Amino acid sequence: MHTPTHLLRVMLLAAAATGCSERPNAVPPAPPQALACFGCHGPAGRSDGDIPDLAGMPRDRFLARMAAFSGDDETGGVMSRIAPAYSERELARLADYFADLEPAP
Fold first, then answer.
1. 100 CB contacts (<8 Å, ≥6 apart)?
2. Which residues does the UniProt record annotate as the domain Cytochrome c (predicted)?
């Protein structure tokens, strides 16, 4: 059962991740499924470390990578467990979202 505090945290994280601001270059609203990506791949898909950026990744490449993680083609640690949980429709929505984002400079 979710507590009111937990729900407030989720709402605040969602608001922060979807670019709720007055900035002219605000990030477009993220699909809810993208929130799970931000923990490792950085806010709006821009990583600060060795994990690949998702922002600006071409749609076909994103879908191919997720298919590889979902199958036996590649072992990606956490991604091999996460990728199979998404439906084709969710993956398509994520691919479109990340492809439309401005890549990190």
1. 28
2. 14-102
